[in-house]
Design goal:
Layout (H helix, E strand, L loop, with lengths): L1 H42 L4 E3 L3 E8 L4 E10 L7 E6 L4 E5 L9 E9 L6 E11 L5 E11 L7
Parallel strand pairs: 2-8
Antiparallel strand pairs: 1-3, 3-6, 4-7, 5-6, 7-8
Length: 155
């Protein structure tokens, strides 16, 4: 009987050691597969890079309240880039942008129109939030300027 117990104990210990070893190997294999999966996903991704993130209109008169600028960006990723949304912080600022996918290495444009008509003269700073299918998913652009009160002869 003692021999049978020793044999069973030895058998169970070997199985447990094998199980632990197999568990370690499986864990390492799963981590390796997950890492490779993430690396592959990152390699095939759009990436947006703006030439500049802000524009200053400078000083302009209330009699010419509409100001425009263009932000140029490049897809520096490896997949087509799509702008999903561009939203301004105020109704006086209107973004329009390239709607078609931008291929890797190609450029696109985002045009901003600021309309200060009916607004109080003075300094302003508006933000435009751009959302894409790439990295970064969200970029914030800024436009600012100083609208001066129109001269009495200009009104």
């Amino acid at each position: 009987r003692i021999d049978a117990i020793l044999i069973c104990t030895s058998y169970i210990n070997n199985k447990c050691k094998n199980f632990r070893t197999m568990k370690k190997i499986l864990s390492i294999a799963l981590m390796l597969i997950a890492s490779l999966n993430m690396a592959m996903a990152q390699q095939n991704e759009a990436q947006i890079k703006f030439d500049t993130l802000q524009h200053n209109f400078g000083t302009f008169s209330e009699s010419s309240p509409v100001q425009e600028c263009v932000f140029t960006f490049t897809n520096i990723g490896t997949a087509p880039l799509v702008i999903n949304q561009a939203v301004a912080s105020c109704g006086c600022t209107v973004p329009s942008y390239t709607k078609t996918p931008i291929l890797p290495g190609k450029k696109g444009q985002l045009k901003i129109t600021y309309n200060g008509k009916g607004k109080f003269p003075g300094h302003f700073k508006k933000s435009i939030t751009v959302r894409t299918n790439g990295t970064p998913e969200m970029t914030r652009l800024y436009v600012e300027g100083d609208m001066k009160e129109a001269e009495t002869s200009e009104k």
